[in-house]
């Protein structure tokens, strides 16, 4: 190995998900109860996050000699509120005959990373990354966020989101070009590096990068975020890509991640093409 150069160390986000929690506040008469923390689902987070901030309350509970009742604010879906399992009688002031419930929302943000070193892969535990980092990579599920192929200097590493393993294609350290029966040139990984094809593979078959696609990335998009784009303007890679959506490894995570991406203002549907807009 030449001095000052090292094997690849690509880091691929394998899953990104906010731990959605809510802080629920209860107002009784002129007093305010201590907020209770309640963890809720991503779907519930999205629903309550979509409601206007001007809501005077979310639900109103009343109690009398004849019984008790609950009525949600007209813009709040009663079924969504009931699904939260709020117990209005907990810590109820017996002197009050009514209570109004409101809420605030907060979230923690986590990534898991798959790090490969010379063909050996290791998946990290959940890492708290903060909202800014989460939003920066919300479209990058299954993408290399940094890659340093064998023979590359530090200033030559790929540090923009790139489809898993694409930065290593064309390097004879990792594989070779082959031609199929239709005359299409594709990259075949050596056994130690087949994991790059398996990450995006489906039905037990590895995914192969075509020569024309690698040429496009290498000559036009190297050093820039690249998500691929077909002639019908559909992205191939990343959270919104159809390749990732059909892969064995990521398919089950896609619906949740695409919903999270839309929550965080993903621009994948804005016609960005192969390039991610600067300053996302």
Explain this structure:
- This protein has 280 residues and is an alpha+beta fold.
- 18% of the residues lie in helices and 27% in strands.
- The protein folds into two domains: 17-107, no CATH class; 113-268, no CATH class.
- The chain is built from seven helices and twelve strands.
- Strands 1, 2, 3, 4, 5, 6, 7 and 8 form an eight-stranded antiparallel sheet that branches.
- It is elongated, with a radius of gyration of 25 Å.
- The protein starts with 10 loop residues before the first strand and ends in a 17-residue tail after the last helix.
Write the layout of secondary structure elements.
Blueprint: E1 11-28, E2 31-32, E3 36-39, H1 42-50, E4 59-64, E5 67-72, H2 78-82, E6 98-117, E7 120-123, E8 127-128, H3 130-136, E9 143-144, E10 162-163, E11 175-179, E12 185-189, H4 195-199, H5 211-221, H6 242-245, H7 254-263
Antiparallel strand pairs: 1-2, 1-3, 1-6, 4-5, 4-6, 6-7, 6-8, 9-10, 11-12
Task: Give the tally of structural domains.
Answer: 2
The oligomeric status of these chains comes to: single chain
Choose one word for the global shape.
Answer: elongated
* Estimated radius of gyration: 25 Å
What tags apply to this protein structure?
280 residues; 2 domains; 8-stranded antiparallel β-sheet; 7 helices; 27% strand; elongated; disordered N terminus; disordered C terminus
Quick summary:
It is built from seven helices and twelve strands. The protein is of the alpha+beta class and 280 residues long. It has two domains: 17-107, no CATH class; 113-268, no CATH class.
